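Whiteboard transcription, Tuesday session. T.W. wrote the structure tokens on the left side:
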């Protein structure tokens, strides 16, 4: 679901607070048919919820709001940007800064153990828990 570049860009715009079709279209300069397909994919996948709204005097339209699963993807996009900012920095600096809504302090993505202590990526060991069987 996340493999298409437009999908990640739509999610980024959702995290910036965009929720309406026209907002996504204008921000991304994406064709209407591609945007419609990507939004449907994200709704079907439970990442966005399609919610009707009406501006007085106009027809019903839909907003696309992040679900809990969608909000959880903020970690993923944050980790990707954090990596890019470190290893492929832009001359003008990061395009997005994430800060705590409560304190305003800068945030970063990290691995935490079950006691809440940070573990550096080089000390994280991945263990396979499911063995896939190919047909």
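and on the right, the sequence the group agreed on:
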């Amino acid at each position: 679901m996340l493999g298409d570049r437009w999908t990640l860009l739509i999610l980024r715009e959702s995290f910036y607070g965009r929720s309406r079709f026209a907002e996504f279209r204008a921000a991304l300069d994406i064709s209407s048919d591609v945007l419609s397909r990507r939004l449907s994919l994200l709704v079907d996948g439970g990442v966005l919820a399609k919610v009707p709204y009406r501006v007085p005097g106009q027809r019903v339209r839909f907003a696309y709001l992040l679900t809990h699963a969608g909000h959880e993807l903020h970690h993923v996009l944050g980790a990707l940007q954090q990596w890019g900012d470190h290893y492929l920095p832009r001359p003008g600096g990061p395009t997005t800064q994430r800060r705590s809504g409560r304190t305003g302090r800068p945030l970063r993505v990290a691995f935490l153990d079950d006691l809440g202590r940070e573990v550096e990526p080089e000390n994280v060991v991945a263990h396979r828990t499911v063995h896939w069987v190919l047909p």
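Someone added at the bottom: The longest helix spans residues 74-87.
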